Amino acid sequence: MSDEGAGGFLARLVAKLAAAGIPNMVVGSFASSFHGVPRSSQDLDLIIDPDRHSLSRLLADLSASEYYVDAAAALDALRRRSQFNVIDMATAWKADLIVRRARPFSVEEMSRRAEGNLLGARVFVASPEDTVLSKLEWAKQSGGSDLQLRDASGILQLRASDLDLGYIERWVVELELQDLWSRVRGQ
Asked: Residue 167 class from Cβ within 10 Å (0-12 exposed, 13-18 middle, 19+ buried)?
């Protein structure tokens, strides 16, 4: 799977999300590569903020001959605020579409997204601070994943002077990520 295939898929998917009226942003390893040290990944991660009507429009626009998506799983993900997959049949790239959580951090994270050029596509990307925080959360959920912590550390190393450390530290306390934040700062 090439990054060129990922870029084309990302551009098409983001256009479909916009046409359906669904706010979205790239997160995960593509966001951490955008802000920090590049690394390969097997899928794209996007946080989306649909309502039932906009999600139904998106699902109707994802032609079965071009994309694999389970509509029932998508609607269930909306109800449970979880995730579902879209697979591009032309490139075999997969996108995990993660429904935005209702908690204060997730609301603020979406409001802080920034537009950028990723893989040749004009997209919204999670801020570097929010990418660090989400990497710390993923590390916490996976028992201290070194990969997630390396991603966060890479952003810190490359962008330290640009980061709003006060913002990060406020959410580190709120999200109970102090131990992992200390580990990343010490790397």
From this structure: middle
